[in-house]
Each structure stands twice: as structure tokens, then as C-alpha cells.
Amino acid sequence: MRSEVARLRCGKTIPLLGMGTYCPQKDRETTISAVHQAIKIGYRHFDTAKIYGSEEALGTALGQAISYGTVQRDDLFVTSKLWSSDHHDPISALIQTLKTMGLEYLDNYLVHWPIKLKPGVNEPIPKEDEFEKDLGIEETWQGMERCLEMGLCKSIGVSNFSSKKIFDLLDFASVSPSVNQVEMHPLWRQRKLRKVCEENNIHVSGYSPLGGPGNCWGSTAVIEHPIMKSIALKHNATPAQVALRWGMSKGASVIVKSFNGARMRENKRALEIKLDDQDLSLIDHLEEWKIMRGEFLVNQTTSPYKSIQQLWDNEI
């Protein structure tokens, strides 16, 4: 099966189809097995994060595949993310991630959320007294730039940053972000943000490209939408394949999570679909709805964000 890539500002290429490894159960053996299956099927782009609890399992599987000769390290694109309680010291956080994963470097290291939590907070949903009032993004980004200088990663970027937050970052960054990973699917198309990122040579990577079905916060609205089903029928495809192909047709990479071998193969066949102008127009007219809203980062007392609108700078 063919692969498609985009070229990042740092010169590296990123495969447009990526495998997500967020697993609420943090099931190590299942994750290792799924990654081995994914490599055999042809996946080369893998996404994790400290807070996912899957770094060790992903690193183990990749290390095994490299030692077996199934794949070479240079063929892989591996992303992890700086958790919000490590913003005070990205270098130490990345060194720990590399140790956990058994890797010498990451291809891509992202600031997971534009929020700073107190050191030692390792739960995805922080308590009220665990927020730092000062965002400190400038100091955090300096640490990310240092990670790049030290060769701990090949590119740096952000996740869940609005257009305004991208502009704010560009105002002080010595090294501009290569990637902004955000929710993106046919019901949340990110038109404004994609334009801002394109104009500033920032690659958009879409998480939850199917709307996150199977996650406690996710929805089946994307893959069950009648328009998505009708486009799928026209192309003898599935709604999931249409959603993935739509994201890639916009130049974005898509991070899709499935540990089921048949579903992984089905998702990879999205690369073979060609959507026409009518399909794209139909999708462009769908009503929009953001699924991952980030309410857990908003409160009236300790968070710098007092509302959802503040978190996303009215881009919601």
C-alpha cells in the first residue's frame, strides 16, 4: 500500500496516516501487540504522550521491531508530548520520555496543552489547586528549543493551540513550531486555524479524525452522519475511510487509534480513496461541532482560563 507524507519546516517528512496509542486501560501487552500489527500493515507514524501511559509499551514494541529487522529507526516518525506539570523543565521531561521509550531521540515533541500545572501532577484531569496561574509559555518554549538544540528531538511543536496562541508564540519564538496537533474531522474542520498554520509553515496534525468513537469523551457523530455514509457508499468505502481521506486531502496528518488489525487495515485503505469536489463541498457544508472541548482546564478560581471561549480564544 502506498504511503503519503508531508514535509515539515525542519526538513523531516511526516507520514499522513499515524497510529494513536492513547489507551485508557493502559494495557501494556495489548498496546505492544497492536503496534507490531500496525508496523506489519505499513504504519510508520506513531503518536503517544506522557499522560497517555503508553510511552513504555510503544517504545518496547518499536525497539523489538527494530531489533528484529522489521523496520529501521529512520523509517519511523515518533511523537510524544510534554505534559502540563513538566512545563518548568521540558529538557528533563523529554530525557525521561526517551528513557521510558528506549529511544535516542523523538521525531516530534509537542507541548500537549497551553496550560501549566504544578510539578508532579500526573492525572489528565487536574484538581482546582493544581493549576499554575502563570501560563509561562515563553519559558516553556525556550526549554523546547533547547531540547531541539541538544538533539533530543528532530522537531518541536504544540497541541491544542488556537490561531491566537500560535500568533502569540511566533512573536517570541526563536524556532517556530513545526506542528500544531488539534482536533480535526469533518464535523470540526479548523478552516481558520489551518489557514493560519499554512501561512506560517506549520503542519496541522489532526487527532480524533473520526470524532473519537470508543473514548469516554468521544462521539460516533462523524462516522454515523448520513452525508458521510452517502459519500462512503459512492466510493465503495466506509465513513471512517472517507473521514481520514478528507483530513489528508487538506494536507493534514491524521492520528487514528485502533488496536484491531482489521480496522487498522481498513483505515490504511483510506490512502486509496480519491474524494471529488462534490464530496469535499458536501463535507464543507456540514454543521460543525467540537467534541474535545477541554472543560477540565477551565475554572473560575485557579485556572488562567475562566471559560471555554478563553481557552480556545473564541474559536469554538
From TrEMBL:
Q: Which UniProt keywords apply?
A: NADP
Describe the location of the NADP-dependent oxidoreductase domain by residue ranges: 18-287
InterPro entries with a match to the protein in the record: AKR, AKR4A/B, Aldo/ket_reductase_CS, NADP_OxRdtase_dom
Coiled-coil regions listed:
none
Molecular function (GO) terms listed?
A: oxidoreductase activity, acting on the CH-OH group of donors, NAD or NADP as acceptor
Record bears the keyword Transmembrane helix = no
Task: Indicate whether NADP appears among the record's keywords.
Answer: yes
Q: Which GO terms describe its biological process?
A: alkaloid biosynthetic process
Superkingdom of origin organism: Eukaryota
Family, similarity comment: Belongs to the aldo/keto reductase family.
Q: Which protein are we looking at?
A: NADP-dependent oxidoreductase domain
Which organism encodes this protein? Arabidopsis suecica
